[in-house]
Each structure stands twice: as C-alpha cells, then as structure tokens.
Write a structure and sequence with these properties.
The protein is built from one helix and eleven strands. The chain is mainly β and 153 residues long. The strands form four sheets. The chain has a four-stranded antiparallel sheet, with no helix packed on it.
Length: 153
C-alpha cells in the first residue's frame, strides 16, 4: 500500500519531465526549400536571429506574432546604422520634416524604451544596456509616420 501511494505521489513529477504536449492546434507545411511544423501551446527554449530570419528552437512555436507596419506621408527619410547593432544606433535624417519629430523605440511586446523629441538631423540612440532582441523605431511628425526594425545582438 505504501508503494502504491508513493507511485501515485510521484506520477505527476514523472509526467512533467516528458517532452510531450497536449496541444489545442498545430500543423505542418513544406515547400522546396523550407519545412515548418508548429504546435500551439509548447514552450520555447531559445531564439536565434540572423540577417533575414528568426528561428526559435525547442519543442515547437507557442504562438505567432504578426506585426503590421503602417507608413504615412513622405517627409521623413533617414538612415539607421549599424543595424544589427551591439550598442548605439545612429539616426541620420536625409529628409527632415519641418514639424516636430518624435521617436518611440519599443519591443515586440509593446514595451516603450525611448520616447523622445528630435530637432537635429543626427541622433544617437543609446541601446547598449537593452537586452538582445528585435525593436521597432517609430518616427512621427505632423504629416508622417514610419516604423523601422532594429535588431540588437
């Protein structure tokens, strides 16, 4: 009887150690160059990003995040470098709006890291202390709004 109670007590611990998941959804698709499978509800163990792709390894992807970037107006043009970066990023405006310019730096979860006004064609964005990941830089003026992706390694 004691052995049965011990087994029943430890059963949930052994069940949690299994890399299985009871998923609510998922799927599989492939093309000539890419194979992809996904399961909704599994955990992620690591994320690696490259020049044009982000790969999350682990059991499967837990969810998809789709970001739509809207642009309006044409009075903002700038160069952002270096991107990807390990530290600071330079913003050089090649076309600066006549109205006030505001910048917002935020991550994919929507957490705002920078909210600043700019009145110069050259700006240094301090990112050295931010964690590695993908950030979005929204640049707005009275008539324009553009969003840029910045990768922090």
């Amino acid at each position: 009887m004691k052995k049965l109670i011990l087994i029943l007590t430890l059963l949930p611990v052994f069940a949690m150690a299994q890399p299985d998941v009871i998923a609510s959804g998922g799927g599989y698709d492939e093309s000539s160059s890419v194979k992809m499978s996904y399961t909704i509800g599994q955990t992620v163990t690591a994320t690696v990003s490259g020049n044009s792709a982000i790969v999350t390894q682990g059991f499967q992807q837990p969810e998809y995040v789709i970001v739509k970037v809207d642009e309006t107006g044409t009075d903002i043009e700038l160069n952002i470098y270096p991107n990807p970066t390990f530290g600071d990023v330079t913003l050089d405006f090649t076309k600066m709006p006549k109205s006030d310019v505001a910048i917002y730096l935020y991550n994919d979860a929507g957490k705002v890291f920078v909210n600043d006004k700019i009145n110069s064609t050259h700006y240094s964005l301090k990112m050295g202390n931010y964690p590695a990941g993908i950030y979005f830089l929204k640049v707005t003026s009275k008539n324009s709004e553009k969003t840029y992706k910045i990768i922090k390694k």
